[in-house]
Structures are given as structure tokens and as C-alpha cells.
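MmgE/PrpD family protein
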Amino acid sequence: MAETRQLVNWAVRLKTSDLPRATIEKTKRLYADWVVCGIAGAPYRVITGLTVMADAVGGNPSGACTTFSGPGRPPYWAAYLNGGAGHVVEQDDLHNASVVHPATVVFPAAWAVAQATKATGAEFILASVVGYEVACRVGILLGREHYKVWHSTATAGTLGAAAAAAKLLGLDEEKTLDALGSAGTQAAGLWQFLATAADSKQVHCSHAAGTGVQAAYLAQAGVTGAHDILTGDRGLFVGSSHGTMDPSVLVPTSGVFEVDATSFKYHASCRHTHPSADALLELMSKHGLKPDDIARVDCGVHQPALDVLGPAAAAESVHQSKFSMGFVLGVLANGQSAQLADFSDARLGDAAVRKFQAKVHMHLDPGVDAAYPKAWTTRMVITAVDGTKYETHVQTPKGDPGNDLTDEELLTKWGKLVEYSGNKKVDVGVLAKELLALEDRKSMDNIL
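Structure:
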């Protein structure tokens, strides 16, 4: 429990003046990236369903907190609805070592509470850095064994959302521990939905973001939570993971922030496909290969890629197709692009994509698996129809720290997302300018 308290003590004490300029800049870009993902995700059927549910059970549009899908809501419901909307297009960020998508659980909680408390942009950034740190460190603690069955964004992310909300509410150390306790006891999210491409992944993110807000407000109201929810003998690690627990990973390193270790997603598909996507593009470009020149593609991957992508191999729906390695590589081979518009009902029936899909095979690569999750890599071998073999080892996928997206590439990505959404009211250039000056804002209202 000492390590959890150290993490919370760090979170409570952290000040804006402690943040390096580069960390502030990274946080702003991650927030802008997530906002545009939310704009693109708002029209999706599942987000409409979440909104209908909110209306039916008492979350009527009567609050001042912005939502992507319609009128303002109270803080809990704004966080809930925005959590799902920001994740459904599968282009929000990822923190490699924790395998958590922090943006879509931390930002909706922080944004809602920032609006409710009239916080400034600088205070929002600070709380978001805290939320990222907690979500990512909890994800690292829970580890690979947890991720086999549990969606870490939904579990660790709930505590990150609570930490961000607690920071904005000004909770002290004891009450922040209460908030994490209430968040952790409600953390949930299982991978079983992959087998049938059910909508649970968006529900996970909505629940995590909303529950984080709820937990912080409960703590503010004096409702207590288990302070040893992470490492206790009936806590989250024991209940949902295996192996040897290393609580030391919860303790922040001075001057180092997990938000800086977070990756932008370049392709509109599951992050487990990205190293192989980059490898395919590299080899096809380098050797002038066309789809019909290729007889077989062998992707050496880590075990969780097999676990997550395997159930979706058939690509029977648009959402499931983003989790099918064969389909994603088939899309890339036949267009050199895997953006949102490249995944559609029409594309599911594309004979050329399906033909290439059948050529793709995943295998466990011990070296790739050993590097994971700190590094997401792949070893690819393409066998041409003439028997020639072409090989590459992608060690830093596009969007990872060290192979970052430039601002120009981010603007291009954001433009495509807004165009896909059909939202004619959003000027990407104007929105980007506003969000990249976030620390100067007097409030978090009127973002959209």
C-alpha cells in the first residue's frame, strides 16, 4: 500500500510549474487528437445507443458539460458519453508499456470536471498528466496476465479517470485514495466481446470515464474507499492478474511523465496490427511489390496480438475488420492506406482485399514477444510468387515516441477524421489552433 500512497502523494503535490514544456505540448496534442476522434465517433450507432440509454435512465441533457453527441450533460454523463465516442474509431492514443488507451478515459473525465469546476486550461492539462500517470502505472502493475482476459483501458483507466477528476476537485491525499478505492472496486471490462464483435469496447471506455468521475465526487462527499485497492490481498491485482506483483512500478520517477511515453495511432485499426502494417508498407515500397506479386505474408508478433486479433480474423463486420491482421494488411496492400474511410461495408466485400487477407499468417515470435509491451515490434517475411523472400524488423512503429507524427501529419489525420464524420461545422485548422493554445484558456467551455 505504501507505493499507492506514494503515487497519490505525487499526484496531489504536482504543480503546473513541475511540468516540462515538452510534456505540456505532448498533452495538448494528445487531447486535440482525442477530441477529433470524438467528433468522428459521435455519429456511430453505438454512441447513439449510449445516448438513448442516458436519456432513458435520467442522464437527460440538462448540464453544462460538453458532449460530442449532442447537448450538454452533468459531469458523469458527459464523461460517460464522451468516453465511448472518443474510442469507437480506433484512432485514439496508446501507452505501450501498460497497453492502455489513456486519452479516452482520462480526457473525458477531466474535461467534464474541469467544466463543472470552472477550471482553466492549465489546470485541465495538469489533471490530465496526473490521470495519465495513474492509468499507465496501474496498467503496468496489472501486466500481461491481466490483459489476457481484462481490457486494461477499462480497468486501469477507471483509476486514471478518478485521479484526474480528484485533482480538479482539489481532493487531498486521503480523499484521493478514497476515490481510487471506489474506482478500483468498480473497474471492469472483459475481452469476450471480440468473438462476436459486440459493442462492449465502447461501453468499457464510457464506464471507466464515468465511474472515475463518480468515484471522485463520492470521495468529495465523504464516501470512503479501500486505500489498498491495488495491492491488497483482495485487491485488483490479486483478483485479476497472476504472477509476482511489483508495486514499485506505481512510484513515479522524478521529472519523467508517462504521458510523454504515449503513442499516437496512425492507422485506423487495432494497435496490435500497426507494426505489421508499417512493415508491409515498407517492404512493398522498397521492393516495388504489388499485391499480386505476393504469395504469402508471415507476421512474427507478440502473444497478445494473437490473443486479441485471432478471434477477429474473419472480419465479419466493419469494427471487427479493424482487429483482423489479414484484413488490415489487405486494405493496405490495395490502397496504401488504412484510415477510417478505408474500412466500410463495401470494403468487406472487396475481392482483392479478401484475396490478400488469405495470404497473411501470424506466428509467435519469441524476440518480439520478449520485447512486448515496452516495445511493439514485428518481424515480417514476404514470400513473392517467384519464391523470393523479403524481410524486415520494425522496432518503432509510426506514431511511437522516437517515430512521432509531425504536426503536419497530425493535421492531415485530424482533417480526414472530421471529413469522415460529415461535420461541416468544424474547421480543423481553427480547432487545432485553439487546442494547441490550451494552457492559455480561462475555461474549458466552448471547445467545440
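Residues 38 and 409 are 18 Å apart (CA to CA).
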